[in-house]
Amino acid sequence: MPKENLTVANPPAATPEEQFDWLHTMLQIRYFEDECHRMFAQGLVRGSTHLCQGQEGVVVGACRAVGIDDKVLCTYRGHGAVIAKGAPLDRAFAEILGKANGLCAGKGGSMHLTDMAVGAVGSFAIVGGHLPIALGVAFEAQYNERQEVTLCFFGDGSTNIGAFHEALNMASVWKLPVIFICENNLYGEYSPLATTTPIERLAQRADSYGMPGVTIDGNDVEGVWRTVSDYAARARAGAGPVLVEALTYRQKGHSRSDPAKYRPTGELEAWLERDPIRLLETKLEHLGLERGHLDDLRATAEQEVMDALERARGWPDPNPERLEEDVYA
Amino acid sequence: MPKENLTVANPPAATPEEQFDWLHTMLQIRYFEDECHRMFAQGLVRGSTHLCQGQEGVVVGACRAVGIDDKVLCTYRGHGAVIAKGAPLDRAFAEILGKANGLCAGKGGSMHLTDMAVGAVGSFAIVGGHLPIALGVAFEAQYNERQEVTLCFFGDGSTNIGAFHEALNMASVWKLPVIFICENNLYGEYSPLATTTPIERLAQRADSYGMPGVTIDGNDVEGVWRTVSDYAARARAGAGPVLVEALTYRQKGHSRSDPAKYRPTGELEAWLERDPIRLLETKLEHLGLERGHLDDLRATAEQEVMDALERARGWPDPNPERLEEDVYA
Amino acid sequence: MSTVTFREALIRAMGDALEEDERVFLFGEDVAAAGGSFKLTEGLLERFGPKRVRDTPISEQAIIGTAIGAAVMGLRPLAEIMFADFAAVCFDGIANEIPKYRYMTGGQVSMPLTIRMCNGAGGGFGAQHSQSVENWFLNVPGLKLVVPATPADAYGLLRSAIRDPDPVLFFEHKSLFNTKGELPDAPAPIPLGLAETVRHGEHVTVVATQMMRHHAMRAADELAVAGIEAEVIDPRTLVPLDYATIAASVDRTGRLVVVQECPNSGSWGATLVARLVGERLEHLDAPPALVGAPDTPIPYSGALEELWIPSVERIVEQVKRTVSY
Amino acid sequence: MSTVTFREALIRAMGDALEEDERVFLFGEDVAAAGGSFKLTEGLLERFGPKRVRDTPISEQAIIGTAIGAAVMGLRPLAEIMFADFAAVCFDGIANEIPKYRYMTGGQVSMPLTIRMCNGAGGGFGAQHSQSVENWFLNVPGLKLVVPATPADAYGLLRSAIRDPDPVLFFEHKSLFNTKGELPDAPAPIPLGLAETVRHGEHVTVVATQMMRHHAMRAADELAVAGIEAEVIDPRTLVPLDYATIAASVDRTGRLVVVQECPNSGSWGATLVARLVGERLEHLDAPPALVGAPDTPIPYSGALEELWIPSVERIVEQVKRTVSY
Ligand SMILES: Cc1ncc(C[n+]2csc(CCOP(=O)(O)OP(=O)(O)O)c2C)c(N)n1
Ligand SMILES: Cc1ncc(C[n+]2csc(CCOP(=O)(O)OP(=O)(O)O)c2C)c(N)n1
Ligand SMILES: [Mg+2]
Ligand SMILES: [Mg+2]
Fold this sequence. Notes:
Chain A is an alpha/beta fold.
């Protein structure tokens, strides 16, 4: 498929109000995960927890480019995507705390946040496992002739697993409306991309599937929003899937208490300069927004997160009867 | 990796004697499979049988480009590759007949012909399953610093399964001496390539793995021989794997009694014109070989096959004690 | 009522399901244009068109993933994984996603999908194309496992599987495709979880599925000649299992022989025996016996494969031993 | 003799194996530069260099395939599949290739590979990172399954696994990594297929592995206070299984309780019970019992996961029931 055919009507530029709203969500995600980190350190969160700090631009830009009826699938590093899609903060916290009111009744946990009510179809913990599932989600819309798209987030390291290959190929053959969004944060767990992957630009893998592939700046939320809007319009029109590689950076370790010692000196600092929240704040200031206004937003977002957490912590554990429920319908 | 870097010292052109020898093997394979087909129709062969008739140029060209110490892995459509690598005809027949003297003592069958003594490391019946295994075979040589290469045959349809992707990627990262040879015979079972694969040139998929990929005429045995010789030299020198797409055609149905009704009219006929045996015979005639000589070779090959079959049919079934042997070492 | 083959019963069940419910779609490798590699979906593309009957690439993970996503969104995917042994290449979807998705989301979704696959030995397909794959999934709660032995069961159970709100793995034994049986003109679905007592008898309870049910019936005929009346029960579904019917029979006969086309370790038969002796040891007059395959892969050679599969003779001998204990 | 953690014992075993045999190489995701995601391979890259200790892409099929090919050619691959649940994404290699290759080739090759993986619940890792995956492989003849419970066993069995000419799946329970135990200064390999009788007792035989062995021991202490002396046996390897030791114990005690961290259906415990009652019903004074998990996926919430895993109390109660039968 020749690249020239891909141009679709550009969406209008985002208004400052819209971008302010994005910033709000990005800050919520940031504070939400600060709390996750803290709670994990305090032993209040079980298992593992994978923060997306530094990557908020990708999930917010992408999720805001689609509507409530569109669907999102993401990974264990999915707090951001699920919140960006509209899941309530308190029930997200509650899930991570294993509470009865959690999004998944406490039965899923941090790696499996799901909120069907807002189109957050699932967070998946087996690398690559959800890419084939995204096909079916998109297929249902195609089958029932609804012009919906499915966003499917995954990491750079996931592009080396078999499911990635099968999913992109069949999505292309069936012309399914899936936007595959690779959050290239340079690492798979502790391994730098170059040690596991013999090419640099992952978007190039789209060629193997006859679908468009683009690499974009994942920390530029408006750029992400515009790209995903474009491709979503294209997919709604029946032109099939695309692969978007969003360059970004995982500011924290892979999970739990990983101190991320494997990073070359200066790498984190350079990326902190390009923190997506910071970039957006600067931009909004350039657009005329007052610093005080931005500070207020930070305070608001933080308060919302703290309130949500307080509610969540007050909720009870699941009842023992829940143990054997939800296996069969 | 830029394509220009791939040129390696061309091997000398093959002598007419060598090519005559290739023809001999190709004819043996052809007659061998004629007999398989016949025996299957007569109910003497169990399960299924997958003929490689029309594809003999690929396996003979490739296997003759490497030595006895180099290794070959192939699919259930593997009679040709295993014979080309040097497995004895009688024991190959015996295996297909489920006899005690079969290559695998009758325990593998048509889909699993293996002869470690000649470097035919295995025939594999799960699509894609052997591509990752080829990595390990090649790795052992690399680890022990022997300059051997591993040939890994598979079909066009197999390029859509996850194992293909994982294998090519990791082979490239580890720079393993594997020649991946895709026998593109236009169909996966009954499905034409275009219905399952959104691109036409499968060699293009090499780009995703930063390895060279080339498409060649699989029915030109000398061309196959030259390409594989080139890449084998390159791999022995430590430059890593390549993907060779050999265009060819499956003259018979997929398996058993598939009448291959799904073929467009004229397709088979056009490819029969380009039958690799016929092409090589014509070429040898041009090189000055007498027709009678070629006819003699056909007769010889046929006789060898018939003799081998007779021997094989005379061998006994496996003893009952064999049932529980060979599970553990 | 008419006589149909197992294959015809399957085709009819799929056709009726596609007819009945717009949400059902059928897909897999070569199921559409080619009508299936075992001709089990013949004519369905022609009847229902390419929207509802679809070919796929050789990509079992993508097939299963598509089934999962579509099921979660409310469709009724009917997927085919040609040989059941290939469940291995998409095991993650089947074992880690399908049976856990509803649970892990606290009941937010259901998973009304059916996966058909050909299992079983006896045809000389070798070690990788002959396994009784249902046993791989026994320790994975959340799946329903269906193992029909007759055309009527194939029809009725497949209809129920497709209608079921939960995920069903539906196993079709290759050696049964050409067997024949009666099918009513308007056949009804057969509920999952209902065993069939195929033969009544007072001396011993024999439990078997698929090919082994037919072997067991032949053994029962031979045993009857020797004065031993075997009750033969075909559970028809392993999950849910009609434990009550089996238990009631064993309570009466006091003796149990399970016949299964697989090694005993990690088998459904071992599971059944462990549960039965745990709950009703006092009803047993003899040790419950498993007639299974040896702990080896399945050999290709006919001479060996025949030894691997439990034979009518082995069943007869075991029943005699059990009855005379 | 020194006190080491389970983790340290594993690292030492791998180090000693790499030292002993040039054919051994260790590979997997993040096992080299990072020293393992659970720090189970720490220091080995530094000691043995990048030729023998290697990182891989996230490509479990490629990892298993590499192990197979290298083993067939005579190396001794030591592969890691981080969480055992990920065996699902490379199940084909493990179930269809590894255990059948030797058989299908009539004994032309052997398969001296070891695959280490972390199994087990209790840490709040959720449904896809906590399973007792060893049960998936029970019906697949040709694999050896090792399930150590102590640092000494982890060391000794891993050494034997790596030396073994056959394929071994080696399960490391996540909840045991920081537990401590004694290890001799020059520890010897422990043969596969040898159970350990961890506690002697005359009233009941309790069989358990990994985490459950420790629960069983605590239960035995409680039971002793109530005058019940339990014999606790840890099989340590499920395949080969030291059936003789267990059977001899049951012959003496007449009572059996198996404790397992998994649903009972398709479990090793059910397999053991079915075999025992089939062969020695007359030795049993009470129904053999399985203390397992409910038929559900593993819940995340601590409140529920605790209920899912067989507890010391449940073991105590079951043993009391069994003994007073
Ligand atoms: C099949 C499988 N293999 C390995 C893992 C362990 N694992 C969890 S996250 C991860 C790294 C994934 O890297 P990437 O795709 O780049 O995503 P990121 O974590 O950077 O967001 C690995 C290897 C897994 N969950 N599933
Ligand atoms: C994992 C898996 N899926 C499906 C099959 C069934 N099958 C056997 S051969 C085949 C077609 C393979 O096509 P291709 O790779 O082009 O090889 P060819 O048969 O043309 O040589 C299929 C689908 C299989 N053996 N393994
Ligand atoms: Mg990453
Ligand atoms: Mg082909």
